[in-house]
Amino acid sequence: MNWKKPKVYAVKHIDSEVRAASRSGGIFTAISDEVLNHGGIIYGCVLTEKFEAVHIRAVTADERNAMRGSKYIQSNLGDVFKQVIKDLNDGKQVLFSGTSCQVAGLRSFLGKHYDNLLCIDIVCHGVPSPAVWKKYLQWQESKNEGKIQNVDFRNKKDYGWAAHIESLFFDNDKKVDSRVFTTLFYEHSILRPACYKCPYKDVVHPGDITIADYWGIDKAAPGFNDNKGVSLVLVNNELGEQLFQDIKDELDIRETKIEDSMQPPLKAPFDIPDNREQFWVDFYTTDFETVAKKYGGYGFKNDVKNSLKKIKRKIKRLIKR
Length: 321
Hints:
Helices cover 38% and strands 19% of the residues. The protein is of the alpha/beta class. The radius of gyration is 20 Å and the shape is globular.
């Protein structure tokens, strides 16, 4: 059973290479390494060669490494729950990572408590439609006259941890940095309908440990942020606490307060956008470039608008000074 109020930490992996390969501070690698080192099994989300998000079973660090990083689309669980219950019944230690609704779904499927199961859930903004992601990639391939070889939903290497820029790498050696899918995501029209009523937009989560990017870290732990990634860790129960203690030597840790860590997905679900219905009409009846211009901030007119907004913000900051 989870505590009513979690213990809260800011975390950075002490291995700089691990942190560089992770989306935030490397907490998932530290936890999964502990499980793998004891012969356990890891379940998590990866991108396929077709850039579809799926959950897989991993028994090695190399297989696990593919689970690092953000995937801002709904993942396909396939028959993973059946694999999990088999591993648990075989006495193997299992780590399952996913969204809060996936963790809650797994626990409901199992129907009973397993001492050898550890669950990690993420602080979830909402789950975007795979259909929009697929059309977005097709549009980029057509526009850039090449096949996409790799994608990075948030290019931390080139732009730092705080930036949210997706990078696409093509077989014609092109690299395209974009914010179109990012903009669609944060406008919320492409989220699943259930996300607007999510019961886990709260500080109480179904995971033993909940992890996220630590937005608001400068207030919660001044001086801890180096723009290379910091993990927010909510330890929700005794099982999570025991594991967290086991991996502390691998981490640089600051204990923080939940009051200083309240990003929007910890407060309430996002409202249904007023234009959501029209977005989906446009999505199914027009080409993606029209959608990108109307909703995704793409095109010259949007570039001018964004530039003017940046100038206005700079002027306001100068006036305040």
